[in-house]
Design goal:
The protein is mainly beta and 403 residues long. The protein has four helices and 24 strands. Strands 4, 5, 6, 7, 8, 9, 10, 11, 12, 13, 14, 15, 16 and 17 form a 14-stranded antiparallel beta sheet that branches. Strands 18, 19, 20, 21, 22, 23 and 24 form a seven-stranded antiparallel beta sheet that branches. A three-stranded antiparallel beta sheet has the order 1-2-3.
Length: 403
């Protein structure tokens, strides 16, 4: 980026910032400045600066355009053995801070990034969170509650969601906006957790990566909004955050005349399980289903929350072999493995819930006895299908970090 372009970007940034301040005089979320990072919610200063350890030198900042956003600023810095990309996107109801940093190594072994919240804002504030407060705090199910301050809770570990009750209105910090799905290599699900800790310069709300001694790519997204009406525990309902276990089903549809207690789509690698072990409570005389022959069967399953689900179909016919193509509105249709006459198997397909229902299309010769759905990504956590992780991908010309 040339000096002239940098000057023009700086002037555009300043002009847009003035315009946004004027437009958002009565708005809930107000980006006051990018360097230092200053954010107000309902006229209250909720972020006073960036936090970065190890720190960087000079950061280049410019503004880009993105539909639906009042301001989008990109930041880029690089040095010996490290690179940093930051994005801050603002509109009246929402502000996103997204960061990706590459470190070849760090002697402390830690890469930390996040924001500083003023002491005056948080000291004495009541909070609700999905996390692990250190100190005097109550708990109702997944939600912990208490009061922040030098004589109250001074630290919250494993923080996924934080709601602050402030004098002029509440504010939410979503530290894990994508929920439990994971879009990188390897197996999911996975979550991102922050730490809130009181320090001399303010309350540090930070994400830390403890593997920086050997090098790391450390990324996160922090979303700031006015306090939602949704209870804290329901913003990102727990699905299953242990990568060693399957996603847990939350919805079931029995097609047969008899109700199924449950059935399990999971078979351990290398294991051999009988039909009764795989489909608890399923017996030949109890199972009836919807049958088709060289046709298409559309099954509609009511779902409480829109999103992407792992849908399991209990398939089997006592007198004939069945085989079909499955489609659930996500990706390409897939061929299900044939099931021999008299056997039962579990066909699995990703399904997308829209308007409170998932529609699964079964094309071929089949007999479906039951369906169950396990949520993987709710619509509010979608940074994959309807939009990307970054609001804009107009990155610096020298930026070769992962998208």
């Amino acid at each position: 980026m040339t000096s002239e372009n940098r000057l023009m970007a700086t002037m555009a940034c300043a002009t847009a910032l003035l315009l946004l301040t004027a437009v958002c005089a009565c708005a809930q979320v107000d980006l006051q400045s990018v360097e230092p990072l200053q954010i107000d919610v309902a006229g209250q200063r909720v972020v006073s600066d960036w936090y970065l350890d190890p720190p960087t030198g000079e950061v280049e900042t410019w503004q880009v355009q993105a539909e639906g956003w009042a301001q989008v600023h990109h930041r880029w810095a690089t040095g010996a053995g490290w690179k940093l990309r930051q994005e801050i996107a603002a509109r009246p109801d929402r502000l996103e801070i997204t960061q990706l940093r590459f470190l070849e190594s760090n002697a402390t072994g830690v890469s930390s990034g996040g924001v500083i919240v003023p002491l005056a804002t948080l000291d004495g504030a009541r909070f609700e969170c999905i996390g692990a407060p250190v100190g005097d705090a109550g708990r109702d199910g997944r939600t912990a509650t208490g009061t922040l301050g030098p004589d109250g809770v001074r630290r919250i570990n494993n923080l996924e969601y934080l709601r602050l009750h402030l004098a002029d209105g509440g504010v939410d910090f979503d530290a894990n906006p994508k929920g439990t799905w994971y879009n990188g290599p390897g197996m999911g699900p996975a979550v991102v957790r922050f730490t809130l800790i009181r320090a001399d310069d303010g309350w540090r709300l930070i994400s830390a990566d403890g593997k920086a001694r050997r090098g790391t790519i450390h990324d996160f997204k922090l979303v700031v909004t006015p306090a939602l009406d949704t209870p804290v525990a329901d913003v990102h309902p727990v699905v299953n955050t242990r990568w060693t276990e399957p996603y847990s089903p939350t919805s079931r549809l029995n097609i047969g005349t008899e109700q199924l207690d449950r059935f399990d789509a999971c078979i351990q690698p290398g294991g051999v399980l009988t039909r009764d072990e795989r489909f608890v409570g399923v017996r030949d005389e109890r199972v009836d289903g919807a049958s088709i022959t060289d046709a298409t069967l559309n099954l509609s399953m009511p779902i409480e929350r829109d999103g992407v689900y792992l849908v399991s179909l209990l398939a089997g016919d006592p007198t004939r072999e069945i085989a079909a193509t499955l489609a659930g509105g996500v990706g390409e249709p897939r061929e299900a493995l044939p099931v021999a006459a008299g056997d039962y198997d579990c066909w699995v397909v990703p399904g997308r819930a829209v308007g409170g229902a998932i529609t699964i299309s079964v094309t071929g010769t089949a007999r479906i006895c039951a369906l169950q759905a396990a949520p993987m990504m709710f619509a509010s956590e979608d940074y994959l299908l309807e939009r990307g992780w970054w609001v804009s991908e107009e990155f610096h010309p020298e930026d070769d970090l992962p998208r």
